[in-house]
Structure formats: C-alpha cells, structure tokens
C-alpha cells in the first residue's frame, strides 16, 4: 500500500449515536456501504463536509440503537473508517459520572481508561502477525483540547481530562462496583470506549472521546442509573453535541500537521516478514499496510 498523506487535509471519523449526523448541516451528504474483512460494520457511513472539512459518521449501535455494547463489531467499524480515508477519530458517548463535580448535562473530554471489558475482540493482530502498540496515553491531546474548546464555544460545560472506566454491560454497575471504581481513580463510566480506543491506536488513528454525562451511576446512596432519566438527558444534549462538532470543524487549521500517532505501528510489528500469516497480512492492508508493505 502506498504511503498515506497525513500532513494536509483533515478527514474526521465520528462514532456516536444513530441520529448524530442528522440535522448537523453536512454539505453534499451521502451514505456509503463499506465492506470490511473483519465483518459487518454497525451501519453505513454518512459522509460530507462541514466548514470545508470532511466528516464521516458511523453510528456505533447501528440504526435505531439495535446493537448492544458487547456485540458492536469494533474492529469492522475502525477498519471501515480507515478505508474511508479518515485521518482522525472522535467518539461521542453517553457516560455515567463517578465524580460529584461532573454533573448530568456536562461534557467530559476523557484522557485515560481503565478497561473492565471481557470477551471482546480487542486487537487487529494475532497469531501469525504479532504487534504491540504503546497505549500509555490513549487519547490524542490535540483532539481532546480541540473538543474541549469546541464545547466552550458552544456554551456548554466541559471537564478537560478524566479517567473513563469501561465496563462490559449491558447492565449498569452494582453500588459496590461503582464505589470501587471511584477508589481506583475513575471519574466516569461507560460501556463502549474499549476496545474502540485500542483499535484506533493500532490503526494509527488519533482518537479522542467526548463523554456526555447522563447520570451519577450508583455510588451515591439512594441514587441508581435510571434509563428514563438517561434518555431525557441524552435528548437534551444531542443538539449541543452537533453544535460542538460544528465548532470543531470551524476551528481547525487549514493544514493538518502530522501527529506521532500517525506512525504508532512504526516499531510495533514483532513477527518477521517470512513468518507472517499471508491471510492476516491481507486483512490488515487498510489498518497496517503502511508498515506491512
């Protein structure tokens, strides 16, 4: 595969709710079905431009929110967006708060994760092609800062920096678990950021997550996650989330300067060329073709 130009035009992938792309004001929008060797993505990709910047939207849970967190094909989603030519990836997610300062209706620009998921395909690599990427700092700082500034421009409340605890779900936490996650240093909690962030790094895509706080989880005595309340807060935040994306598009510099994450696989592949599984190499051409040849 030829060298990817990551120094000129921005192309944002956006993973979020099924209605996020609607009403956002995309110019020349079109829906495209993207095939992936890792299976079916959650849905078709809606692509268009905002303020001259290319955006491609993919609903994480599919049309009508039909796919539960543990059954999202995260690999196919990331692979599909990479095949669309995405250079940077932002995720918008509903989250619970583990902090009294992060109230329902607030936005949180996450910078760290604790992964408590299990049984999800969390790597593009495997037997026959081994790779180890660095994930010490899983969030792209310039995307995180850009999202935080965009929330402020939209007159929302944002917390810049927080630790996201990713749980398997689909049930919410027990009260004991919620209190334990607070002791671990968790600030917010959700079910979808992992392995999404891991796979974005393997695909050499700078990634940032903007969480929308819907509830206080269950760590406060007398409180518990209530679906009706969560849906109500989410509905109020949809328009603001769209405005945040619009402000982000308008604030970007014309030229996209390189990110170190563009080359996250530079020294990550461990398997010698002669020992690599040809079938897996072929599957990884979109994700890792830059380093696999």
Written overview of the protein:
This protein is of the alpha/beta class and 293 residues long. The chain has a single domain (11-292), classed as Rossmann fold (3-Layer(aba) Sandwich), CATH 3.40.50. It has seven helices and eleven strands. Strands 1, 2, 3, 4, 5, 6, 7, 8, 9, 10 and 11 form an eleven-stranded mixed sheet that branches. A hairpin with a 2-residue loop joins strand 3 (45-50) and strand 4 (53-59).
Topology diagram in text:
Elements: E1 11-16, E2 27-32, E3 45-50, E4 53-59, H1 74-83, E5 88-97, E6 107-109, E7 112-116, H2 141-153, E8 158-160, E9 163-167, H3 175-183, E10 188-190, H4 193-202, E11 207-215, H5 227-251, H6 278-283, H7 285-292
Helix pairs in contact: 2-5
Number of helices: 7
Taken in chain order, the helices and strands follow as EEEEHEEEHEEHEHEHHH
Mean residue pLDDT: 93
* Gross CATH architecture: 3-Layer(aba) Sandwich
Main structural class: alpha/beta
**Integer count of domains:** 1
Number of E-state strands: 11
CATH superfamily: Nucleoside phosphorylase domain
Runs in which pLDDT lies below 50 for 5 or more consecutive residues are 1-7
Instruction: Write down the CATH topology.
Output: Rossmann fold
CATH class: Alpha Beta
Shape: globular
- The helix content, as a percent range, equals 25-40%
């Amino acid at each position: 595969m030829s060298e990817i130009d990551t120094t000129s035009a921005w192309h944002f992938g956006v993973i979020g709710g099924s209605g996020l792309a609607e009403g956002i004001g995309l110019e020349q929008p079109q829906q495209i079905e993207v095939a992936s060797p890792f299976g079916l993505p959650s849905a078709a990709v809606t692509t268009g431009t905002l303020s001259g910047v290319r955006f491609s939207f993919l609903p994480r849970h599919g049309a009508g929110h039909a796919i539960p967190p543990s059954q999202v094909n995260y690999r196919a989603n990331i692979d599909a967006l990479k095949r669309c030519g995405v250079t940077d990836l932002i995720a918008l997610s509903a989250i619970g708060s583990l902090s009294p300062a992060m109230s329902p209706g607030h936005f949180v620009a996450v910078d760290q994760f604790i992964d408590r998921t299990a049984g999800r395909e969390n790597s593009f690599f495997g037997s026959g092609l081994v790779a180890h990427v660095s994930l010490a700092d899983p969030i792209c700082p310039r995307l995180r800062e850009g999202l935080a500034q965009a929330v402020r421009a939209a007159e929302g409340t944002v917390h810049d920096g927080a630790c996201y605890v990713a749980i398997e779900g689909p049930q919410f936490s027990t009260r004991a678990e919620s209190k334990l996650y607070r002791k671990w240093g968790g600030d917010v909690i959700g079910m979808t950021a992992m392995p999404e962030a891991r796979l974005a790094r393997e695909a050499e895509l700078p990634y940032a997550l903007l969480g929308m706080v819907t509830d206080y989880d269950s760590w406060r005595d007398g409180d518990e996650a209530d679906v009706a309340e969560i849906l109500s807060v989410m509905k109020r935040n949809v328009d603001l989330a769209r405005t945040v994306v619009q402000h982000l598009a308008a604030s970007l510099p014309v030229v996209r300067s390189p990110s170190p994450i563009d080359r996250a696989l530079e020294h990550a592949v461990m398997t010698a060329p002669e020992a690599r599984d040809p079938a897996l190499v072929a599957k990884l051409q979109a994700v890792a073709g830059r380093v696999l040849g």
